[in-house]
Amino acid sequence: MSIKTAIVDGVATIEIARPEKKNALTQEMYLAMADAINAAGADGQVRAILITGQPGIFTSGNDIDNFMNSPRSGLDAPVFQFMEALIGCDKPVVAAVTGAAIGIGTTMLLHCDFVYVADDARLAMPFVGLGLVPEFASSVIVPQLMGSRRAAEKLLLGDPFTGEQAVECGIANAVLPAGEVLNHARRVAERFNNLAPGAVRDSKRLMKEPLRAQLRETYKAEAAVFGDRLRKPEAKEAFQAFFQKRKPDFSQFE
Ligand code: COA
């Protein structure tokens, strides 16, 4: 199983563990993460959720083979179940990121409450480079967070950015040495063991609820375009180029 879960000292940890494919996320993995978030939300013993990857790789994003050979259809697809679970979660979610966090690896961070990144972290939202469009409401959240200039670099050009830049533009709380990120994130999650759980949930709900309807509307609008683009020749060229380890050639498209 490529998603490992554990509940220790009030913290439900969700660990992405598919290192041989750089933690690329499959439909089965999205479902496992959605189930783990929903179960943690319903478990009275769980005070916070911690999402992490492997040393040196958070996730390389959606499995590109899945994009190519079994593109998502419909809003009940596993990736949307994961998005819905994360957006709707009323318990604090903490992320610990080392290495690459690409595509949904970055956009899921926009929906976590605390994000700690390693000094080796490399974030990117290279949707356009794959012939795709932003997802997980990033088309709205990213410009709001960092302004339209920096958002254009990250969403239109797909420029990667460091952990330090992620802090600077409001995506992450702090940068730490790679070997310390997970422990630091766990300590933050464990602090919720000493706080009133009902007050934490109500506070998070008050912070998030006014925006949830807009986020859902946005990710559904993005999903319609994204799903359409997954089947277009531009995306097919980009996916083939990835597996052939070459740069995509978009020169024939208008
Ligand atoms: N989907 C499917 N397979 C992936 C993958 C992905 N998102 N990311 C990596 N892999 C696979 C590679 O195909 C390779 O498989 P192979 O050993 O069978 O050839 C293996 O994982 C190792 O990846 P590789 O690219 O050789 O590792 P690297 O250390 O040189 O680079 C990354 C790591 C994460 C920078 C690079 O793999 C990458 O850019 N991945 C794709 C990111 C992306 O565009 N994601 C989609 C965002 S919407």
Describe this structure in words.
It is built from ten helices and ten strands. The chain has a domain at 3-178: Alpha-Beta Complex (2-enoyl-CoA Hydratase, Chain A, domain 1), CATH 3.90.226.10. The longest helix is centred in the C-terminal third of the chain and has 34 residues, at 197-230. The chain is an alpha/beta fold and 254 residues long. Helix 1 packs parallel to helix 3 and helix 5 (138-146) crosses helix 6. The protein has a six-stranded mixed sheet with strand order 1-2-3-5-7-10, with helices on both faces. It has a four-stranded mixed sheet with strand order 4-6-8-9. The protein starts with a strand and ends in an 11-residue tail after the last helix. A hairpin with a 2-residue loop joins strand 1 (3-8) and strand 2 (11-16). The protein has helices at 27-42, 64-69, 78-88, 104-107, 138-146, 148-156, 163-168, 181-190, 197-230, 233-243, and strands at residues 3-8, 11-16, 48-52, 57-59, 93-97, 100-102, 114-118, 122-124, 161-162, 174-176. Bound molecules: coenzyme A (COA).
Overall pLDDT score: 97
* Percent of residues in beta strands: 15-25%
Structural classification:
alpha/beta
Which regions have little confidence, pLDDT < 50, spanning 5+ residues? none
Strand order of the largest sheet: 1-2-3-5-7-10
Largest sheet: 6 strands, mixed
Architecture blueprint of SSEs:
Blueprint: E1 3-8, E2 11-16, H1 27-42, E3 48-52, E4 57-59, H2 64-69, H3 78-88, E5 93-97, E6 100-102, H4 104-107, E7 114-118, E8 122-124, H5 138-146, H6 148-156, E9 161-162, H7 163-168, E10 174-176, H8 181-190, H9 197-230, H10 233-243
Parallel strand pairs: 2-3, 3-5, 4-6, 5-7, 6-8, 7-10
Antiparallel strand pairs: 1-2, 8-9
Helix pairs in contact: 1-3, 5-6
This protein binds coenzyme A.
